[in-house]
Every structure is written in C-alpha cells, then in structure tokens.
C-alpha cells in the first residue's frame, strides 16, 4: 500500500477531541465597515495590508484599513472574465447559478490567498475554479488541470451543492497551489505550476476524510460533519480552519496529515459573540509568524451583543510558535 493511500485511511479512521487542543489567546477584535453585502469569506495579507473577499460579490476585493479598532473596507473592482467549464455536474452548476441569482454572488468566492508578487487568488465554490487578480486589477482564471475536479469527485468530494472548494492557498513563489473541499467529504488537493499552466504531480488529492467532529460544549449539537472553511500556507506547512471544533490545525504539505491543532472556542463561544446558529461562523484564515487572523462571516445574522458587521479576530501565535509540537 502506498504512503499516500495509507495517509487517506488514517485521515478517515483517527478521531480527534476538541478538548485536546490548547486555547489561543485573542489579541484584538475588529468589526469591518464597508463590505456592502457583508459575508466576509476570505482573508490574505498582500503587500502592506490585509485583504478580504465576500462570497456575495463577483467583481470586488477589499483592502482593509486597520488604522482604528473598527476597520474600513476599501473596494477594488475588477472585470470578471468568462468562467471556464471545470467538469462539475450539470445539476450542481445549475443549482449554484440559481442560488447566486437569488442571493447575489454567482461565483461564490470562498477563499483568498496571495503570492510574493501581490497577486490575489480567489476560489469560486460555485465553479470549482481559481481566479488570479494582479496588483493592477487584471483578472484571469487559472488553467487548472481537469484532473482536479475528476479526482476530487472520484474520491467522494465535490458531489453536493454548497459542499465544494472552500479554501485556497498558494506558496510565495506561486509554484504550488492547494485547495480545500469543505465537507461531505472534505479534503485537500494540490497542483504545481508549469509555466502558465498547472498540473498534478503524482495525483491531485492529498487527503480525503469524512466522519464527525466534537463541538464545544456550548453548541446545540454534540457532533457535526467535519468541515474545512479556510486554508493558508505558512512556513512550509498548511493550516486549516475547522469551524465545527473551532480550531486551527497544522498539516503536512506532502499528505495533508494533521500535526497539531489550536482552539479558538473560548473566544467564539463567549456569550456576547454568540450567533443564533448551530454552526461555527469562522470562514477566513491567514497565519503569520506572530499570530493568526480569523474572519467571521455573520451571514446577515446579529450577534448577541448587537454587532451586525463582519468581524476579524487577531490571535497571538501559540507558545513556542506554530511549529511547536503537541
């Protein structure tokens, strides 16, 4: 049995307890003004600022002005090119299109990453495609291999509406790009750049898993299907945002194997920050040496303390840094 298939079996079989993860310390909290449609769904540090994307808008990125406690979102608009056919089923594509017309956001951009040149990468959940927006505002869809969707579906991912790609990460040199499938089944995929196109080397699928995670005690349900809601690259590791267990987890690049997790449940479950929903609302993640940024998609809901805007939390890095063993 190959090492990759062994890793897939381990991901399916090994349970994980939310109580085992040490708690992160929140440094600050920042409501965000100026995202017209709300629904903050991706964060990335590009150049000298943090940028955000909303899953309800198809042609805009937001630069976050962090000069005060309440941040201002400054819109940068771009022209959206025609969407490629990535091989999703007709039923999934039609349902996504109908939902997009009703609520806004036909692309359903659910993740954001950035390379060292300042190019922004947005993943479309509705079309299983990645859009690159240059610092000058020029947008183009990446020429991803057809095997990405084909292998994902063969592994049990991307089969259900609204359970598609939820996160994207790129290394600083834009040589490797990773995608996270959200749930039912969730998983990680990787492609490698070959000049102006991308290819799978030794297969696109890094890991795939099902099962359920324990939720914090304050949640209404004891367990829920495991989910990825954000993905980022830092210091030769992948970091996943896992909103059911309210955790950030570090994973190996070569196979997606989980190495360590840290909880943000104490912050999210504090009574003033609670939403009237049984699900975690953390949708966006960016990790750096000093800590992590976590973006909250309030999905038009109002928090217990009356806050109606999207919110970004800043957490300090764990003791010993993100590379520390547990």
TrEMBL record:
Keywords from the UniProt entry: Signal
Signal peptide per UniProt = 1-20
Pfam families, alphabetized:
Phytase-like
What is the top-level taxon of the source organism? Bacteria
Which residues does the UniProt record annotate as the domain Phytase-like?
37-185
For this entry, the protein name equals: Esterase-like activity of phytase family protein
Species source reads Stutzerimonas zhaodongensis
């Amino acid at each position: 049995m190959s090492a990759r298939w062994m890793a897939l079996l381990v991901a399916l079989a090994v349970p994980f307890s939310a109580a085992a993860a040490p708690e992160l310390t929140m440094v600050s909290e920042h409501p965000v003004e100026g995202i017209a449609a709300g629904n903050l769904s991706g964060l990335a540090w590009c150049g000298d600022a943090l940028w955000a994307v909303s899953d309800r808008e198809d042609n805009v990125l937001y630069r976050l002005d962090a000069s005060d406690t309440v941040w201002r979102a400054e819109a940068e608009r771009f022209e959206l090119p025609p969407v490629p056919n990535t091989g999703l089923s007709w039923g999934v594509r039609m349902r996504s299109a109908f939902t997009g017309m009703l609520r806004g956001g036909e692309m359903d951009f659910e993740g954001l990453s950035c390379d060292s040149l300042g190019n922004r990468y947005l993943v479309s959940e509705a079309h299983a495609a990645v859009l690159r927006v240059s610092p000058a505002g020029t947008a183009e869809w990446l020429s991803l291999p057809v095997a990405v969707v084909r292998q994902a579906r063969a592994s049990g991912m991307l089969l259900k509406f609204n359970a598609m790609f939820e996160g994207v990460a790129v290394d600083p040199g834009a040589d490797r790009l990773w995608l996270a499938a959200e749930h039912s089944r969730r998983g990680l995929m990787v492609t490698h750049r070959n000049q102006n196109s991308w290819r799978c080397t030794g297969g696109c699928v890094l890991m795939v898993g099902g099962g359920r995670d324990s939720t914090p005690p304050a949640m209404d349900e004891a367990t829920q299907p495991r989910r990825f809601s954000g993905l980022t690259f830092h210091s030769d590791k992948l970091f996943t945002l896992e909103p059911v267990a309210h955790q950030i987890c570090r994973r190996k690049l070569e196979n997606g194997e989980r190495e360590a997790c840290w909880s943000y449940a104490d912050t999210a479950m504090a009574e003033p920050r609670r939403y009237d929903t049984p699900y975690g609302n953390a949708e966006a993640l960016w990790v750096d040496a000093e800590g992590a940024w976590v973006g909250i998609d309030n999905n038009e809901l109002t928090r217990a303390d009356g806050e109606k805007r999207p919110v970004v939390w800043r957490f300090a890095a764990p003791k010993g840094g993100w590379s520390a063993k547990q």
